[in-house]
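stuck on this one:
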Amino acid sequence: MTATIIAVLNDLWDFLWSQESKEIVNETALTLETPRKENVAQNTPLIAAPEKQVFLNPPQTNVDGLYGDTAYILTTEAKAFHRPVWTFDGVVKSFPYATAVTVLGYEGRFARVANDGSTLFILKDELTTHKDEIFAEFHTGEIYSANHPDTKKVRRLIRDEFFTTELCMPLLGVEFVMYRLLLAGRSIVWKSTRPRLAGQWQNLLKGQMGIQIGIMPKTGAVFEYTKADGSGFLGYTKAVHVDDSIVIEGMGRMIEGEYKEEVLTKEVWHELRPVWIAIQ
């Protein structure tokens, strides 16, 4: 009897031990998970990805994405440097408003530009390749009041030579002619006599070096005559045809502030008794 009880107890012990072992194995299997990818990444050295390449002078790019394009100074005066950085006493040249430069590339916020054979750096925000931001456009019959955008462009370009901005005057013929001469690369050295009214330029400029005054039409010359009421008119001679008819453009010949491009036959302009002032 005793031996039978002992045998039963041994069998029960073996059964319980085998069940506990299975639970231990299963529990161990649950805790031994496959290492996560992030853990591997943290513990395994990786080859760093190559950094994005940055060009100091991006090819085929400028203010408008057109490499080598002509740009214009948009501010009153742009400071130029030998290197693309602001440094003490580093300004080597100043470009006035509307100066044309060629964009060669970029370095950071600076543009490398060429002008008159030299290569310098200016802030690219001081440039524009849009000519209509700088230069005025004129349309026959349009009135150019003091607040007209193109009136402001002309006065900014000629630096308000006649002090008309503060007087809120419409665009004058003398201003328009000065603007056209400036675009043609010509300028006048004025004496101190004021005011420089239309109709009086031939007297103010008579005898000056580089000035020729005559009664025959000449392309690119200033067209001037005195009206019946004693006031004067200044225009710009855009063309002279073989039949001696002329194309003139000007401001305020008939209506104050009005731009007109006109064709005058020889008979018509001859009656006006004009003179042509050629400026070299």
About this structure: The two ends are 142 Å apart (CA to CA). Residues 225 and 272 are 7 Å apart (CA to CA). Residues 2-31 form the longest helix (30 residues).
